Every structure is written in structure tokens, then in C-alpha cells.
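Subject: Sanity check before I submit

Could someone independently write out the C-alpha cells for this chain? I want to compare against mine line by line before I put it in a report. The sequence has 391 residues.
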Amino acid sequence: MATQSHSLSYAGCNFLRQRLVLSTLSGRPVKIRKIRARDDNPGLRDFEASFIRLLDKVTNGSRIEINQTGTTLYYQPGLLYGGSLEHDCSVLRGIGYYLESLLCLAPFMKHPLRIVLRGVTNDQVDPSVDVLKATALPLLKQFGIDGESFELKVVRRGMPPGGGGEVFFACPVRKVLKPVQLTDPGKIKRIRGMAALSSFLGEQDAPLTTDCRYSVRVSPQMANRIVDSARSILNKFIPDIYIYTDHMKGVSSGKSPGFGLSLVAETTTGAFLSAELASSPQGQGAAVLPEDLGRNCAKLLLEEIYRGGCVDSTNQSLGLLLMTLGQQDVSKVLLGPLSPYTIEFLRHLKSFFQIMFKIETKPCGEELKGGDKVLLTCVGIGFSNLSKTLK
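---
Independent answer below. Compare away.
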């Protein structure tokens, strides 16, 4: 897969996914030391171990060495193999934590990836499956990754802390990626959303509890309250708003009750900007009213629109990775302010692929509305999917 074979060394648990994903794509081994070495509970967490097991499933011939305390990890990547797989994700993090990395790796497998992921579909930390479906999939299509076998669907919802959700993801393989010129963010033309409810009925059909935060059954009326409060803010700006409600009951609602809202704004040039919020897990944190959640999520979307760009904050690193791996041609993308995660990702791209981006700041003015923008330009490394089977 790559000519360089000398390993890279890092310390600490931060950006573990970035390092392992880029190691897998570049073929360069990576050694990570001092993983929470001074912590009361040192070493890798359950959700990180689950992520490493997932990488082991999608590759063939990977060598993974972890010391007794879990504070040192050596990873020598194998070939991306793909195929039909299943994986039980840790309920400590959302399925989005695992899915973000699969979106980076899936186009470069030997066989098209078809995977069922089980766990938490909506939480307060990671991007929900709804947001990734609405924003990351259209971004991948810009790079030529498309087809009938390209889909992401929520089979069952799962809220924290119990999880119980199920997601199916299928992605075709590509030999090379197209270069892109995403420099015109356009204007917002429509807003779509998904208000998700899970009402878990428990072992027996338990009666409604008096807890003001959660009832054992989440009332379907909750969805309408979320939608109305979000619309009360967004209707001032644009009339074309539609927020779907997804109220899952019984088996398809997972193991915990909860509710959440994801909003996506689409622009005239096909860019997607997203925001989302979820209720606190059952028995944890402060109570969240559906009205507050709807209003706050609408405000987050307006903030994301102010930041602007052709790719939203959640998918900045995915866009930059696909530009890096593109053909040896110039790719450009206009982004809002770079998130700290994206800045670290650019440093890692330089370490693993020796690629540097030209970064120009574009202050807001007549042409660009909202916050200051950043134009990133690079020449792709001409990455070719050598493991793709020839037919």
C-alpha cells in the first residue's frame, strides 16, 4: 500500500482514531506510548479496545500488540479487506465514533464493505448516524464514491446508557478518487431535520414513572414539542423547513429511553451544514426539556451556518483526507474556522503522507457572509487502491 515502512511514535491517548486510520491507509506502523499512564485507571478504555477490534475485522494481516497495563500500543496495519461484517460497539461512545473512521477506510477495501454496527445511535458526544447520513454521504459522492450499494440506515435506535441500536452501512470500493473544487458555499435553500424518540418498555409493560426527565415510555407528543420549538426560531429565516419525527417503540427502540434532534441545512451549491443535540442519559445529568433542546439545537445550526464553508465542522477532516488521497491534481475546499481536531489532523497528514496544504484566510466581506473562512488547497498524492479486486 505504501513505500514507507518505518514506524511513527506518539505519546498519549488523544487522536487515537486519527493515528490508527492514517496508519492503515499509509501502511506505516505506529507505536503509541503513555496511554493514560498517570491515570487512576491507566491504559486503553473499552471503547478504544472495541475500535481496535473493528480495525482488526476490516483488515487482513494486521499485527496488534498491547502491553499488560494497556498503556502501550503497537499497530502494524494489514490490507483493507472489507466484506460482510458485524460489530458490537462499546456503549460508552456512539456508533458515530466508529462510523466516522469507517467512512475514511471503506472506499479503499478489497471487497465492498457491508457492516452491521450495534450500540448507541444518538448521544451527546459523537455525531449521530442521522447527521453522518445527511452530511458525510453527500461529501463522499463529491469524490466519486457513489452507487446503488452505498447506503447507511438506522435499523433500531439506541440511546445511552443501554444502547441496543443497530445500523447498517454499505459502501462500494473505488480505485481512485476525483479531485474537487468546493469553493462556493452558496446560500441556504432548505432545512431538514430528524426528531428521534426511543420509548423503551422494559421487561414488563411498566407503568409511567413520575420522573420529570424521563418516563419509561417517552410520549410521542415530545417529538411535536421539539419540532415546534425548533421551528419557532428557524421560521424567521426560511420557510422551507421540514423536520421528520422518528418515534421507535418496543424492540426497535433499543434498551434506554431518550430523545434528540438533528438538523441539516442544504445550500444552493449542494453543501450540507449540521447541528444536533440529545437528551441526558437516563438517571444522569440535569433534566432537559424538549422545548429547550429544540431551541438550543436551532441556535447551534445558526451558529454552524455563520461559520459556513462547503463542509461542516463535523466532516472537515474527512474532506481533507479524501483530498489528500485524490489523484495527482489540485483540489480546493473552502471551510469555516478549523476545529482543533482538524488542525491536529493536518499535522498527522504531514507525518503519514508528507503532504502539506496551502492555507489562505478569506475574511468575510461582500462575497462571503458570516465568519472568516479558510481556503485549503493541495495536490493529491495519487493514492491507488491496490487491493481492489479486478473483474
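---
OP: Matches mine. For the report I'm noting this point. Confidence is low (pLDDT under 50) at residues 202-217.
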